[in-house]
Write a structure and sequence with these properties.
There is one protein chain. The chain has helices spanning 10-22, 79-86, 105-114, 130-142; strands at residues 33-37, 43-48, 96-101, 118-123, 145-148. The model has no long low-confidence stretch (mean pLDDT 94). The two termini are 20 Å apart. It has 165 residues and is of the alpha/beta class.
Amino acid sequence: MPKRQDYISWDEYFMGIALLSAKRSKDPNTQVGACIVNDANKIMSVGYNGFPAGCSDEEFPWERTGDEYDTKYPYVCHAELNAILNNAGGDLRGCKIYVALFPCNECAKAIIQSGITQVVYLSDKYADTPGTRASKRMFNAAGIKLTKLKLNHDTITLNLKEESV
């Protein structure tokens, strides 16, 4: 019997893990996940956007507008930073990070400092903002490879019912 032909690529698999991680985010507007992978295709860490440990998502604000102190922006940890911080102590030098949304300038700094050498992303919808432009400037200066992922599959379906396995 020939092998199955409709399997997903490594890139789709790891981006799928990042997108699945994003489903853990409680942010009512933007859910982003990240997956860090070493050169042996082993997952080193995952993360999603949310408040730091000990900061209740019931007590801190999710608002996007108003006085900055009362918005989510000073409090939320982005998926990339969480993935770097969630790493269980493995060396991230030479790893790739998969993330649906191109990293902001703050995450770019953490990515560079951690030794990650490639960013694989789906969307660059904030390409013209100063933060994203600064990210690209830093990534280029640091020699970080930037890859906009081209997918072979539009969807990956997960059936969580016991009968499906």
